[in-house]
Amino acid sequence: xxxxxxxxxxxxxxxVEGIRKYDxxxxxxxxxxxxxxxxxxxxxxxxxxxxVDARHMGYRPASFYKTHRVTTLLGSEAVxxxxxxxxxxxxxxxxxxxxxxxxxxxxxxxxxxxxxxxxEGVMTFTTWDDAKRLKRLVPRLKKVVxxxxxxxxxxxxxxxxxxxxxxTVVELMDRILGLVLxxxxxxxxxxxxxxxGVHLVKETTIKKIHKDNAGRAVGVTLENGRELATDQVIxxxxxxxxxxxxxxxxxxxxxxxxxxxxxxxxxxxxxxAGDVAEADDILHHEPRVIPILPNAYKQGKVAGSSMTGNEIxxxxxxxxxxxxxxxxxxxxxxxxxxPDDEGYEVKRLIDRKNGVYxxxxxxxxxxxxxxxxxxxxxxxxxxxxxxEGVNISPFKNHLTDLDFGVICFPKDLRTYKISNVYM
Amino acid sequence: xKRVYAKEEICAGCRLCEVWCVVAHSKxxxxxKAFNSEFPRPLPRVMVEEAGxxxxxxxxxxxxxxxxxxACMTGAMFRDGAEGPVLxxxxxxxxxxxxxxxxxxxxxxxxxxxxxxxxxxxLCQGEEEPSCVAHCPNEALVFEDRG
Amino acid sequence: MRFSYALPEFLVERDLxxxxxxxxxxxxxxxxxxxxxxxxxxxSVDSSKCVGCLRCVTMCPTSALIVRQNPTSFKENASWTGRxxxxxxxxxxxxxxxxxxxxxxxxxxxxWDHILLNxxxxxxxxxxxxREPMExxxxxxxxxxxxxxxxxxxxxxxxxxxxxxLELRMPVMFSALSYxxxxxxxxxxxxxxxxxxxxxxxxxxxxxxxxxxxxxxRTIVQCASGRFGVYRDYLQAxxxxxxxxxxxxxxxxxxxxxGEKVSEEVSKTRMIPVGTDALSPAPHxxxxxxxxxxQLIYALKEAxxxxxxxxxxxxxxxxxxxxxxxxxxxGADIIALDGLRGSTGAAPTRIRNNVGIPIELAIASxxxxxxxxxxxxxxxxxxxGGFRNSADVVKAIALGADAVYIGTSALVAMGCHxxxxxxxxxxxxxxxxxxxxxxxxxxxxxAKERLLNLLRAWEHEIKEMLGGMGINAxxxxxxxRLHLRGVGLSDTDLDILGILPAGR
Lengths: 423, 147, 504
Ligand SMILES: Cc1cc2nc3c(=O)[nH]c(=O)nc-3n(C[C@H](O)[C@H](O)[C@H](O)COP(=O)(O)OP(=O)(O)OC[C@H]3O[C@@H](n4cnc5c(N)ncnc54)[C@H](O)[C@@H]3O)c2cc1C
Ligand code: SF4
Ligand code: SF4
Prior knowledge:
heterotrimer; A: FAD/NAD(P)-binding domain; Enolase-like, domain 1; 5-stranded parallel beta sheet; B: 147 residues; alpha+beta; Alpha-Beta Plaits; 2 domains; two-stranded antiparallel ribbon; 20% helix; binds flavin-adenine dinucleotide
């Protein structure tokens, strides 16, 4: 059996571990565009900030490929897929044949058509190379404009803050982290960012990037007419599934590659996992692209198991994030901003003095989302309640309590919980 | 594998398990030093949950399919062998709290004493019996293999 | 009255260098004597709240605590002792009857400590119980006056119908400790230990909780003046039935379980409303004479088809011997005598400390009276009230008892520290409480093991003592007062006890 994996990040690693759980003999070939051994993508902002050095960027120990008997082709890009022939074409012209193929090519940053975006000094921030480049530049940067106050924009901001750079974040919504937090939650974080001297410009976007004679970005004009001087523009308005490889193949795509519960694509022996795939979202009961690491790893692992013939169902994913802004920890998951009129119930605890905010979103006596600011400990209990669809009515009124815990569950449930092992 | 299980019916809520967990993970292993002179003092990796008259001690369940490992973005959280306990490498950990976000038992604490690191039960590696179990005055914690 | 004159009975001292501020003491003291101050990160203590149960001292992981008698003393006065003054203060402040728990703690003579056992030397060799069989098995119940044995076709058959008997592996049983006075965990421990060891426990007037029916064949079920929890299944489940007339700790008065202890489960078991005081009347309202007692005894025997022995328990009082004689004639199969030092979950202090007679004297006089009247074999004699060790047991048997009940010893084995606050329901050891927070502190498995260990240890010791006397069966010791000698006793005491002074 020959397994071929395109990609070398969370989903790919999950796949290797999934395969090896059942098949210790099959040949595994891993092809990746980036020249590095698997590294942690979310760590690039820590790397930029100098909090993590190159030695600790690894997502797995250096021995990983050896202990899992994986052959690697690092620095090779896959450019074509022939599902009839069961082979993948590489950028250097070689082709590799597969018995089972995983596409784990992740996401690519989205760059909108902005006048002047081809200027030098305009970049995205999703790879270690991006972080390395930015880190080299940073001593010379005085003013940086980040387009996008979402997760990646905020991460880039954090990485730069460590260097004392003057930062302006331009955000189209009325708040930062708009997709993962609500207005109240962000107000806690935005106040802190202001204190730390970060400029936030909201409800607008960049209309034009100005270049100097050498073609370098020197300033931007915003949609609202404001002008900002800058030496670097970072575009961080999101990632799109990286589906270029399958564009000309029969593999079915929607926003991402369409997969079933076993991570099988429309084509036999071709699997997809991670940010490139569109898999079940347990809260919306439909396939969605949820580009977060836990889902990527889990999907990879499910794919790996399936590829060996051990079909373990993907339990489905949901949006969840853990971020820390200006030292304030925040965790959220599921549906955080429910529509007003669709039978959702919301429980809140707001304690501005102690910097605590807790919000629970409930639908049909099931927890479907939460936001925790400041007091985030034991957040996973909520995630678990969402995932398991537990009827929370017996302890609904305790959900936002600071000491909410397993003890608040009804006796039967908690006894079951503490005397059994998860999954 | 052997895991720690609590017996709620007879947990006295004294929290001596927490105390002895701290001692077991302290530098000196001496209870008075661990609390009164050593720095940093480890966090207890077992937590006693209490509500009214009820209480029990809870620590990492060492899940079969650990969500914390799946969510850990640095590889700091790992399983020791195929059947071993779920362990944590503080050196690799950056304190992103992804694991805190997903642990369905809330068994991971945030240690921010020096640098941000996750803190969780390691079943007292190398000891015959975890310290919490060994010191529970009411035998409300047992260390056994229930599959 | 906000200000009390009563000085703290104890002084709690904390070694600050050893205190790690883990707050175990704070959490474990139901009297809230310890308190943690977050601001200063210190644990402090209010000694006046300490009852001397030593829970904190035992639990403190660094041994940082000492509890001792408050050294502050009142001006010395042989009549007006500190205790006398404090009692007056308490009553002047509350206007109430003083309450207490456990047995009499006043310095009345403990005759056991003035009675010595014999041992064989030269003429009658002693026996090594590790090498030779030693029988401690004891049967309780009425024995026939004579045995009719018939020989038919060369085969011997017993013609006499024997009365029902309880079979004990050793002549020690757990006395009546009612569920309600003690926690369900404590009851479970006692019942399961009795069953596993092969002796009996006694429900007291608390009824039989449904979880305890599994041990019923090793349980003596009580029928007291309040008739709490008494119904058909209860009577039929027990191994024997005991009519409780009186209790050594509070002769002449009824029982009182405060409403706070009447939890949901206690209520179900006793068949009374939750939260109401369980007051059992001083007398049984249907017993005003020996004849009345006989009616109840036979009513119970009828109800259980004469399959179970019926015991009658009285407090040891001045005319115990005459009453016992009447009880035997009324049909009691077992007579239980509860002495002056008998324990309780709650009793008025004055009653506990001043009413009744020591169990040693009661055994001797009852045994003698029944012998004199030729009816001793018709009932077994069980003694209770302050048996602290196996030597006390051996002495009681030699004085004439068939078996003993132990209460306090059993509680102490489980963790009781005899602080005497059982009546508050706040037992920090989880024994004499119904508070769900405190109750869990007693692990019934551990408690059972401790009880079993105690019984096994006593069993060994009793065998050793018997062996020393050259006796290989407890039967041969029963009423064998020649094996006893008194020291430091008056002629009258010796006369009542029916023993010779040491040296004679
Ligand atoms: C700055 C930043 C911070 C983040 N922080 C978090 C966070 O805190 N929490 C969280 O849950 N998620 C976070 N994420 C998202 C997380 O990193 C992704 O969800 C996760 O990395 C997805 O893994 P993946 O394996 O699907 O793909 P990717 O990580 O995108 O990896 C794709 C892999 O495919 C390779 N590849 C791509 N195209 C080809 C090709 N044609 N041929 C060969 N190889 C190819 C790449 O080299 C790479 O190895 C963050 C992302 C970024 C950018
Ligand atoms: S830390 Fe939590 S998620 Fe991880 S193995 Fe332990 S119980 Fe499971
Ligand atoms: S806090 Fe540490 S162990 Fe937990 S997910 Fe993050 S890096 Fe992994």
